[in-house]
Amino acid sequence: MPQEEKKGFVSLLYNRISYLGGMLAAIMIVIFLLLMFISSVAGGENPYFGLVTFIVLPPFIILGLLLIPIGVWWERRNRLRKGRKTEVLFPIIDLNVPKNRRYLIIFNVSVFGLLLIAAVGSYHAYHYTETTGFCGKLCHEVMNPEYTAYEQSPHARVGCVDCHVGSGASFYVKSKLSGMYQVYAALANVYPKPIPTPIKNLRPAQETCEQCHWPAAFFGEKQKMTSHYLYDKENSPWTVNMLIKIGGGSPGTAQTTGIHWHMNIANRVEYIARDQRQQDIPWVKMSNFKTGVVNEFNDETNPLTPGELDSLPKHRMDCMDCHNRPTHVFRSPNYSMNLALDTRMMDPKLPNIKANGVKVLTGEYKNTPEALSSISQQIWALYDEKNFPDTTIHPASIEQAVKTLQEIYATNFFPEMGVRWDVYTDDIGHTTSKGCHRCHDGNHKTTDGKTITRECSACHTILSQGRPDSLEITADLVNGLEFKHPVDIGDAWKETGCFECHTGGQP
Length: 507
Ligand code: HEC
Ligand code: HEC
Ligand code: HEC
Ligand code: HEC
Ligand code: HEC
Ligand code: HEC
What we know:
Helices cover 46% and strands 9% of the residues. By secondary structure, it is an alpha+beta fold. A hairpin with a 7-residue loop joins strand 1 (222-229) and strand 2. Helix 13 runs antiparallel to helix 14 (353-362). It binds heme C (6 copies).
């Protein structure tokens, strides 16, 4: 084999483009390895670090490597143009030449090294794009409300992807494809505020929630005790202690009752919603798996037209139709104030603080800094000597109230994204939003008069209620107590939904 030809190929590598490519790739690989080393030594989960290492650097490495053959091709073309022959595009490798063997070993070792780096890199890149840091912190403004609420929720140690992506390659690819658009939308500032819900294409609950929670294994009741404070000068306490009949069970066990049993295990419930937020539900269908009985319920006050029945999509009810806020919980002013007073983050002896706190939290503010300073000003003004000549008030408790109110605001209200409790309502109950009463309002009936129940005792049993010093208690765990409203509103609570007066602020 003529020696010049082999030399000819190697000499083709000596060109500016290949030099540039080689240098670029080498520098980027060194930085990449250095960053990998630093992050493995320093630990932690800095989203920007990952962004540079796994998203920004790799394309430059690939670009550098691609430039090498492009340079060879360019150089050969130039030489041919200038009338020089002999150069071949591909090397002719004669393994009998010792130098060739050395070249080949060097070549193979570097390819192997690069493949190793690529494998380790893409493994880390995969994990990096699945971290809560990547999802929650990188798009700081967009995801800030969800991230903040999530950090305070029972799911704070569950990764975003466990609910939003789940396991398996197809959902990974799907989520990354829509993620690319989201990154673009965030950078170009064209995303909707607030982000519309329910989010399209959220993975079915069977593949996310039910990987950790298994309703067939639930049973019985969940006790829930809530402390309320009234809107009077004394911030009078009022507690409600109830058993919520969550139920559950599997077809093999005797325990087959309650909310989860009826809704998920024994039956299939389908519904049609008129609005995107699924608050207006005029049609519900219930199919029993075992008996084959099918019931269609229509809202008699607002029935579905035949056209709507054909054109609107039917949804199969799942966990998220009740638990739509399992982790991104934006608390209402009323709820937040009850919680703060109950945990003594605020002094219940501060006169009227429940009403005043709810008032300042319900206000409209342009952005968070403005809200925080305005909240402070308003509270200090409400308790100054002119408005409140009561000298027994301790300034320290006003100061504490201001601090707590600011904290409540900062973790539950996001004016920049248009997010607060009444934008993302929670569907789990019926006291501040329609929730269960979207269907259980007593108006959804079959043609033969069967009704989706509005009976208070279908869902819970009240064990005790009232002021802590004069609590009404029962030992009758089956029937419980009849509900008593804290202030006299007559029989209004029997006919009107609680959510119609209670919207999260002062009723
Ligand atoms: C326990 C499961 C769970 C976890 C963990 C979780 N989410 Fe969600 N997320 C949901 C559900 C369910 C919805 C849909 C709410 C709806 O459709 O009304 C949602 C909705 C959202 C929305 C749409 C806006 C909104 O508030 O409804 C964003 C944005 C979001 N999640 C981001 C995140 C980020 C970022 C993380 C991690 C920091 C995360 N999520 C972790 C369950 C979860
Ligand atoms: C990766 C596992 C995991 C996934 C996925 C998951 N959860 Fe959870 N969930 C948990 C853990 C852990 C807790 C906290 C238990 C505790 O604090 O006692 C929890 C708590 C809850 C609670 C009780 C909250 C409370 O206030 O006591 C509800 C309700 C719930 N999850 C619903 C859901 C729903 C709905 C989904 C799907 C959108 C979901 N979970 C997905 C692990 C998970
Ligand atoms: C018809 C509405 C409804 C549906 C559908 C529903 N749940 Fe629930 N779930 C409730 C209610 C109501 C409670 C009790 C109130 C609470 O925890 O705030 C509850 C409680 C829970 C709890 C807490 C149990 C405990 O002992 O603390 C978990 C976990 C849970 N649900 C998971 C799920 C999962 C997973 C699904 C889907 C398979 C699901 N739920 C479907 C209404 C529902
Ligand atoms: C999309 C409509 C819809 C929503 C929302 C809904 N349900 Fe239901 N629920 C039904 C239907 C339909 C039935 C079956 C009625 C029947 O066959 O008598 C039912 C039955 C029940 C039953 C059994 C009642 C009985 O007579 O024994 C309970 C308990 C229940 N639901 C609890 C809840 C709770 C709690 C919520 C809110 C967290 C809720 N449901 C939200 C449609 C709904
Ligand atoms: C379809 C089921 C259902 C029906 C019917 C129902 N509730 Fe409820 N109710 C719930 C659920 C679920 C919760 C708990 C929500 C939560 O965990 O935050 C609740 C919460 C409550 C609370 C506690 C509120 C608090 O913040 O302490 C009271 C009081 C209450 N209901 C009264 C009633 C009365 C009175 C009726 C009858 C007029 C009634 N409910 C009918 C499901 C129902
Ligand atoms: C006709 C309007 C109306 C209806 C309907 C109504 N409430 Fe109220 N509720 C009020 C008013 C007004 C107050 C404020 C009382 C005060 O001055 O402290 C209040 C206060 C309360 C409080 C104490 C304050 C707090 O923490 O929220 C609770 C608890 C309560 N209501 C529960 C309910 C429940 C549960 C229902 C439904 C079964 C209901 N209410 C229906 C008007 C109503």
